[in-house]
Request: fold
Amino acid sequence: MSYVKMLTRMTPSELGRRDEIAAALVDFVNGTIMARGHPVQPDDDLEKAGVDSMALLKILLFIESGYGFWMPDDDLVEENIHSLRALANYVTRRLTPP
Reply:
């Protein structure tokens, strides 16, 4: 699903929740993974920012502990993990009942 389609399907409360999740992810990544003086923003490309596979695993563990589910391998695609906002979109979709 494209980013634009995903946004048009979210309600205002889901968009607010997504932004809260994105902020929590930014705080976690900047506080535990990134070097001081090199913070990431929600829409930054994580690979270009230097987030490697070990750092991504830490982020996934943070999601598991904070939101109660593990991200399955099939969902570890560029669309879901290229930025912290993309991860927040994914988490929001998983937490929203169908």
Remarks:
- Residues 11 and 22 are 16 Å apart (CA to CA).
- The helical segments are 3-9, 12-32, 53-67, 78-81, 84-95.
- The mean pLDDT is 90.
